[in-house]
Design brief:
Layout lengths: L12 H4 L6 H8 L2 H23 L1 H34 L1 H14 L2 H17 L2
Length: 126
Amino acid sequence: MAAVRTRKTVRSAAARAPARQTKSTQRSSLAAFPLRTAFVVVGVVGLAALGLALLGPRRIRDEFIRPMAEVTYAPVAAAVGPQADRAWAETRAWRDRVGRILDSINTSEVREMVASRLAQWIERFR
């Protein structure tokens, strides 16, 4: 089989030259992502402040924030509540044991012994 040769196309100098930036492309570079994001954030904050000024903080809290909290908190609490109660009940023996251990070592003799050992340890590094 004969090798197939591809033909090179001749491009004009204008096609090879890099594109020059016009004023419209420079303006669009000002509308880059961080600047647009800042404008959106400022706009949203402004609209929220305007809504707060028009409706009042008590009405916003009573009509918007509390119902949203109830809608989002209630399902989470219903799902997590039984599991948390079961885990709390299952760890009762462990919590009691740790409590007894802490009560047994919380004496003046133990505190003095810990303080003397700590002082000895600090003296070794001096």
